[in-house]
Structure formats: C-alpha cells, structure tokens
Design a protein that fits this description.
alpha/beta, single chain, 2 domains, 8 helices, 9 strands
Length: 253
C-alpha cells in the first residue's frame, strides 16, 4: 500500500513536503506514540501512510476510521485501520477500547484525525473530538504529538501536500490536567502548529521544506513532448517544471 500511494501521489500531486522545523522529535521515546492531526482533505489517509513509512519505519501504525467509510474502503482494515462509529455515542467506547489494547505495545503508533470530520484548514476553533483527551488515561507512557496538514497549489499543475509535527507532549504531563483543560491544551498546540505551517505555505519558498515524495512535473502529453524536442534542438537540458530555466537556456543573455 505504501508503494501504491507513493505512485498515486506522484501522479496526482506535485510533492509531499515536510517543514524543516516540523520534523518529529520522538526518535528516542521508548513507549507508544499518538499523533493527532487536523482533517482537511481526502488525501489525509494517504499522507499519513507515507509519513509513517518514511519517518517511523520501526513502528506499527494504527488509525481509527469511520465505520461506514471502512466498509467502502476495506483495504485500510488490512493495514491498521479499525472501525469507529462516529455518528453514535458508542463510537467513543469503540475508540477507547481499541486504543487501550493497541497502545499497550511499546512500538505502537496511532494516527488520529482528531476533528472527526473534514474541515477547512483555516477554520477556528478546530473543534477536536473529546476522545483525544482520554488517551493519556489509557496510555500514560505515550507521547502525544500534533501534526498539521495543509494542501495548496504553487507553481505546478499538481497541488502540494504539506506536513509539520509540533512539540511532543508526554501523556503523564497531560494527566495532571482535567479533561477539559487537556482538550484545550491539545487544541491550542495543534492550532499553533497549523498557523506556523500556513505561514510557510503562504511564503511559497520550497527551501523551507524537505521533499519526502516528489511528483511528476510539467503538463505532460503532446505539449511537453514538443518542449522536449525544442530543448533538444537548442542543446539544452529539458526540465518540465514550470520554474525551469529551459525557456531561455543556459547561454541566454
């Protein structure tokens, strides 16, 4: 599935970019890890799968998944997704029961789209579901990490996917807070991470990011074929990217 989604992203997006300041700082944590993120797009599941493979290959990843959607996309159940009925009160019990079992493994990693619904990246407040505030009680040895996700069009025909991890929070530190204050702390940390990531996205400076997956550049088809032939005839290396220098050539004044 990692190979499939990597190919899929390369076909349909321009890149998956990780903010340089937003690299995860949890390599030495001996217990389970819980990553909670916003939920701006259909692409989120694919992005999470690619992040897990690229950044945390030694961990076993799991994720709660809307039960109705899991019926439609059953393949996710084979790679760590478990069903949660988000439209009924029993959904919270399903989530906590599964999380307690899975997070008992020290190498476990759980990815939670904590808004529980699709929401615009600019929407405030984020409205995180209350279940994330219960995690410290069932996994006190875990570290909890905010993850900001955003998508935007820059210079290429495909959109850019952006990610940034925030400051990890030991679950035991959150246990000292009442649940309402825990939820507020988690939401505030994710909001701050999202705001900082958006600042970099708006700046449109690729050097602020590391490219984890790079997609196909250019328009493709007949038009790029013609551009390639023109560059070849002029003795230039063809670069299909929109910002490429082949429009003038290396010998142009």
């Amino acid at each position: 599935m990692v190979a499939y989604f990597r190919r899929f992203l390369r076909r349909h997006l321009n890149a998956l970019r990780l903010a340089e300041w937003g690299r995860p700082a949890i390599a030495d944590h001996p217990g389970p890890v819980v990553v909670y993120c916003n939920h701006p797009a259909w692409w989120d599941a694919a992005i999470v799968i690619l992040l897990a493979d690229r950044l945390f290959p030694a961990r076993v990843s799991f994720a709660p998944f809307d039960a109705k959607m899991l019926e439609r996309y059953g393949v996710f159940a084979r790679i760590g997704a478990f069903a949660v009925d988000i439209e009924s009160p029993r959904g919270a019990a399903q989530f906590l029961r599964a999380a307690r079992l899975l997070l008992a493994r020290p190498n476990a990693m759980m990815w939670i789209t904590a808004q529980g619904r699709f929401a615009d990246v600019r929407a405030r407040p984020l409205g995180l579901k209350a279940g994330i505030a219960h995690v410290p009680e069932i996994a006190p040895d875990a570290v909890i990490v905010p993850l900001a996700l955003e998508y935007a069009f820059w210079d290429e025909r495909g959109a850019e996917a952006f990610a940034a991890f925030g400051t990890p929070i030991p679950a035991r530190d959150l246990l000292a807070l009442p649940r309402a204050e825990r939820l507020a702390r988690l939401e505030a940390d994710l909001t701050a991470t999202l705001d900082r990531l958006s600042t970099d996205v708006i700046a449109r400076e690729p050097e602020r990011f590391a490219d984890l997956v790079a997609g196909a550049k250019g328009i493709g088809g007949i038009y790029d074929g013609w551009r390639r032939l023109r560059a070849l005839a002029a003795g230039r290396r063809f670069d299909p990217a929109h910002r490429a220098s082949d429009a003038l050539g290396k010998h142009a004044p």
